[in-house]
Amino acid sequence: xxxxxxxxxxxxxxxxPLDPAFFCQFCFGPLEVDYDYEAIxxxxxxxxxxxxxxxxxxxxxxxxxxxxxxxxxxxxYTPLLRADRLAEAIGLDTLWIKNDTVNPTWSFKDRxxxxxxxxxxxxxFTGIACASTGNLANSVAAHGAHAGMDTFVFIPDDLEEGKVxxxxxxxPALVMVRGSYDDVNRMCTELSHDQPWAFVNINVRxxxxxxxxxxxxxxxxxxxxxxxxxxxxxxxxxSLFTKIWKGFKELHQVGLIDEPQTxxxxxxxxxxxxxxxxxxxxTLNFRPQKPNTIARSLAIGNxxxxxxxxxxxxxxxxxxxxxxxxxxxxxxxxxxxxxxIFAETAGGVTVACLKxxxxxxxxxxxxxxxxxxxxxxxxxxxxxxxxLTEPLRVPASSDxxxxxxxxxxxxxxxxxxxxxxx
Amino acid sequence: xxxxxxxxxxxxxxxxPLDPAFFCQFCFGPLEVDYDYEAIxxxxxxxxxxxxxxxxxxxxxxxxxxxxxxxxxxxxYTPLLRADRLAEAIGLDTLWIKNDTVNPTWSFKDRxxxxxxxxxxxxxFTGIACASTGNLANSVAAHGAHAGMDTFVFIPDDLEEGKVxxxxxxxPALVMVRGSYDDVNRMCTELSHDQPWAFVNINVRxxxxxxxxxxxxxxxxxxxxxxxxxxxxxxxxxSLFTKIWKGFKELHQVGLIDEPQTxxxxxxxxxxxxxxxxxxxxTLNFRPQKPNTIARSLAIGNxxxxxxxxxxxxxxxxxxxxxxxxxxxxxxxxxxxxxxIFAETAGGVTVACLKxxxxxxxxxxxxxxxxxxxxxxxxxxxxxxxxLTEPLRVPASSDxxxxxxxxxxxxxxxxxxxxxxx
Lengths: 422, 422
Known about the structure:
The structure is a homodimer. Chain A is α/β, with parallel strands linked by helices. Chain A has helices spanning 37-43, 46-50, 84-90, 109-123, 135-147, 161-168, 181-194, 205-210, 213-222, 239-253, 274-280, 306-316, 325-339, 345-359, 398-421, and strands at residues 4-9, 15-16, 31-35, 80-82, 95-99, 127-131, 150-156, 173-178, 197-199, 230-234, 263-269, 319-323, 369-373, 392-395. In chain A, strands 4-5-13-10-11-12 form a six-stranded mixed beta sheet, with helices on both faces. In chain A, strands 8-7-6-9 form a four-stranded parallel beta sheet. In chain A, strands 2-1-3 form a three-stranded antiparallel beta sheet. In chain A, β7, α6 (161-168) and β8 (173-178) form a beta-alpha-beta unit.
């Protein structure tokens, strides 16, 4: 069973029943799920969690849906990897990578969709839909297929090929919209008024967004039921960022960890940085932007939770950074070369911003830090093609290979000598 | 510690010490790792496994390397998903998908590389290498990067772009060889005589191959410590196929399950089917082929373990099938549409062959079956591009979308009526 007990307005705190609703009828503030934490604290122990499945459903009492409605592709409980080589490269003592590239559709969106589709089924919806920058589309299409539901997926018409094929393969009604994500989102909001579909990130958004908290639960559990000093999290709508912080606080509320002292810092691409720009300017009110960045999955110019992300930074003494497209590509490569993890561009944004935050002193060397890598690199190979070391091309002869290798090494040594002499 | 106690020739059963060696000095038979199963049965219980990490290292006593040398990207313990919609589509009562697309480099090769690189470090190698059809290259490059080892990756020069970028991103020495996989493999075998590198699938192959057994351990554990009636497994070298069967038998040997009665059946592409063709002809001696198939990751024309795969079919009353390129593509789509799992072409081979085996009566409707999906679909998007339902393309207007949707539905209904009337 679920311990969700109401929706509550984040602004005026008015309560609503657990319906497919997402904004307050009085003040238009966003609605958020409220739980009976006392009841949860009675049923949820470190031992009960450890005895659960190796998926996000191990935290079922904290999810806003009855598990009997779940559509389970095996999402969550992804690796938390100690990243010593990357830590050394950027000047940190202790760094962890939360690797969410190994979810069923290779991004963290499987978490929010798992929860949203379960709640949609519980509401009785037979259709599922979304407005997406790509990763969400992949996940909604896959989960809709697994559940045998009518599935409608709306994306901007200029997305990366991997993300288009990665949705189309599941045969949803795939709709490519001429416009930006923000245009797609406006159009879907209109459609949600009349169509009998659960738009996961619109009319069931309060439930959907709760799925992100499972990243916090996992990190805390994987660290031995404690929280890190600092988290660096990519920001698109800003929802993921705020929900990780909510997750840490909830674990304390139900008695599973000490009070979290974690500083929360967010990462954006310079080409779409409404939240990071507002942080830099010291305001809680961001100005919408027209995105222009290779980090398409973060290209939300008018972020729904931007205000709350900025409040979370204030509350936790965190901050925000932004990275140029070239820094993003270099960071994708750095993460791969040092840790063996191939992230999509959003992961490059996070590693590049992490590096900047260490360089600026915003993150101190001795702060134990977790960086959240939210999508796999095969989704955005266009971004790195042409920026990688040229392979050796040889005929099928070991002698030919050894000659080519020697020639390459001589060239590299020459370059190194020349560079050293300059 | 490891319970591996010797290498043993699979033909003449001569014993060798645990060295970097792979063939018998007397009869040239392949070497395989032997364990002290009695000691393992004393330390390994269902409870000790359950208390282990959610990775393949939960089966550490059955692995041929000391865990202290491990290079751990979090491989293994992947989902075993009940596939009711696919089962219904092809005519089975109970079907499970072992989804190995959610490993760190999105294929099962992370299993064999995890074990090979650990053993290579234990031997003192500082360089790691492989001959690969693509997936192994991705995995060796990633693990080599994570461990900070010299890394050499040899691939045919006409692989899919996702597999090339998916290796190059980790900055190994990437060598693209003009020739087939079999050419690349011959060249690497030569190099392994002189170079101080662990070629994971050549000079440390006996250890490497053992990693595949973890798939059997996981399936048995995930089914509640029992084995299925039938397994369908893709065959390239044939090693994975034989090792899954070995894994089931070992679990019985150490007292964790009843004696397995599983029938083992293998899948190949029609364009590279040396093992399936030999099975169809009723012989244990396959004839090498020149591969010509979109299933590049299975395109091994001269399979090292083909003979043992055929023996395993004989021993288990299993069999083999092959699928055309079009059947492979259709099966990739069928798996995605019914279960929400996007597999690379090798997964299409397995689902297409599974379908054929049910149709032919080789697999009976009431046999509980597990199909092994060994790599993710983003690695081979070329194979399905142009074969997917055309998206709806609309301007950013809900009215325009609804019109386009109605028009599409009218067309589809017209097509359906026309088809019904024909």
